[in-house]
Amino acid sequence: MATHEVLRAFRFALDPSETQVVALARYAGAARWAFNHALAIKQAAHQQWRAEVDALVKSGIAEPEARKAVKIAIPSKPAIQKAWVAERGDSRCDVDGSCPWWWEVNNYCFQSGFIDADASWRNWLSSLRGNRDGRRVGYPRYKKKGRSRDSFRLHHDVKRPSIRLLGHRRLNLPKLGEVRLHGSGKRLMRLAARGQAVIQSVTVSRAGSRWYASVLCKVQQELPQRPTARQRVGGLVGVDLGSAYLAVLSDRLHRDNPDSAVVEHPRRLKLSMDRLVKAQRALSRTVKGSARRAKAARKVARIHHQIAERRATDVHAFTKCLTSNFSHIAVEGFSVEGMIARETASGRSRRGSKLSSLFNRHLLDASLGEVKRQLSYKAPWYGATLIVLAPGEPVNLICSRCGAQNSRVTVSDSKFSCRDCGLHIARQQNAARNIMRAGRRSLGSVTSGSGETINARGGAVRPHTRSGVGRAALKREDTRSHRPGAIPRE
């Protein structure tokens, strides 16, 4: 074990009083106002720059030269905050300004809003220039009350902390006071008492009808330098993520369960679809601006929130089990947005469009991007190694037994058939085995923390090393299931 300093967020459900709920909404409104205020200043400067560039272009100057000639800086957080302090006013002294009520909330609400506006603008520019991965980020937009998520972020001086736990069920927030927790903060309190956790900030947000506090801490965490014995027995596993099943593995997830190679899709959205449809129909029958509409909207939001929480629980349980049972985990390097766009474009007929819509719904309900994100940070926590294959690896087209290619296989096929060796197997199982083999090829010489390279069976590649003396590869019994479509052992 080696101790490392990592950033971890501890999320707590709050149980505020009615007065505190109003105060939390006011803080979230202040952060939203600060974001919109900073964004308006940025957009005004950008529009001025655009107008001057257009004027030079009309005068006969080429646009590249006009862009270089016009020098108008987009104000950032320090400049915006300095101007805001000078013009904000103060209602306590009857001084009018842009924000005379600023003293009613914590000052960090405004600072976090200015910082978020900077991040939004920076993300748009980096995406526009092609320096940002993922889908295209659009031009920053204003946050509208009732449409954007209510949230705000508070900071403090770590030497004189004002964000702290008062007992196991109370969280002190600057200027807001003590807020009761719905659960227990015993784990964080013990880490802070031992000096292993230092609170940096807290983000308070509303989801559905509940308020949550995400406490960001610098934690002294012990990270394993090598896989555990159970992980070494599991070795390398290939994981095929999809919409029909959450995951199909090249090996069993649990040693004593022969059916655990296939992880079923929880389909949380489908299980709650009847309640959601009923609530949305009731919402559509209400009058805009009425009290009944606000009540119906809260019910719809509550159902969506319950679906999201249950889905998150399923994903966390699966990723922890995966990283704690295998030493190396290989997954495909795919883009969920690309898969959705491809399937939507392929649905030409009405029936095909309906099938594509259903596929997209199941794909998004699986949260495959969240699974990969959690595996990326949980693998080092538990001593495992995540292997992400290069995008475009033809794992669905190659036979896992002989290596022959079948270009006729599509993602809509449930079976894979090889003409050369006669293999008939489920397409996801064939892909999982190919992912495992591709991961083994890319693994190459992955060294553990002790300086020793191990193979998928836990045996030392270089037996002459000190830790490899007298150590042989762990040969497992053939625990193959004799049911059709079972994954044979390598």
List segments where confidence is low: pLDDT < 50 over at least 5 consecutive residues.
445-490
Protein structure class: alpha+beta
The count of strands amounts to: 14
What does the main sheet amount to? Answer: 5 strands, mixed
Radius of gyration: 27 Å
Report the span from N to C terminus. Answer: 32 Å
Question: Would you write up a description of this structure?
Answer:
The chain has helices at residues 18-58, 63-69, 77-87, 107-128, 186-193, 229-234, 268-271, 273-284, 291-325, 336-346, 350-366, 368-381, 427-443, and strands at residues 2-13, 151-155, 164-165, 170-173, 177-180, 197-207, 210-223, 236-241, 245-249, 262-264, 328-331, 385-388, 415-417, 424-426. It has 490 residues and is an alpha+beta fold. The chain has a domain at 229-468. The protein has a five-stranded mixed sheet. Strands 1-7-6-2 form a four-stranded antiparallel sheet. β3 and β4 form a beta hairpin. α9 crosses α12 (368-381) and α10 (336-346) packs antiparallel against α11. The chain starts with a strand and ends in a 47-residue tail after the last helix. Residues 445-490 have low confidence and may be disordered.
